[in-house]
Design brief:
With about 170 residues, the protein is an alpha+beta fold. About 45% of the residues lie in helices and about 20% in strands. Helix 2 crosses helix 5 and helix 3 crosses helix 4 (about 75-90). It is globular.
Amino acid sequence: MTDTYEELLAKLSYSSRKTSRRIRRNIDLSNEYYCKWIGLDQPLQKNECDDVVHELKRLNTMSRAKHNVTGSFNEENFEKFHKNIIHLTSQKSLRLCFLYQKNNDKPIAFRYGFLVHDVWYDYQTGFDLSFSKSGVGMYLLMQVIERSIDENAKRFDFLRGDHKYKHHWST
């Protein structure tokens, strides 16, 4: 990783830099969206985890449907695992970011992972497909990457999977 988000952008291809800046500028200037972070800044109580995991499941399932894949949240044990891990780590290593559209009380995208020592582990993501053309998934990833740099992460680990966006950000 780099010391600043701008240094990281400079390492991307011209096309990737241009796309990333356009998405960020368009969403920031639209003034239609805001991010809400949960974790170190705002730990969760046990009873709040059910609502959070419900939204994670809803958005993850939507974004997986685009690829005709069922999300792992559809398995009962996996849902319980998320409730437990989110509750247990919300005061230590969890970083969960929801993206909301103003005047809407339901999040339209999420991304969550864990900051352990100096490594950000990017664990789960999901978004409402009706917002995919505006780049909300990429925007949220940019927010998370910038936050990880601000929190002195030395490495950003996308974990498993061979998604196009992971190659886009690998430098």
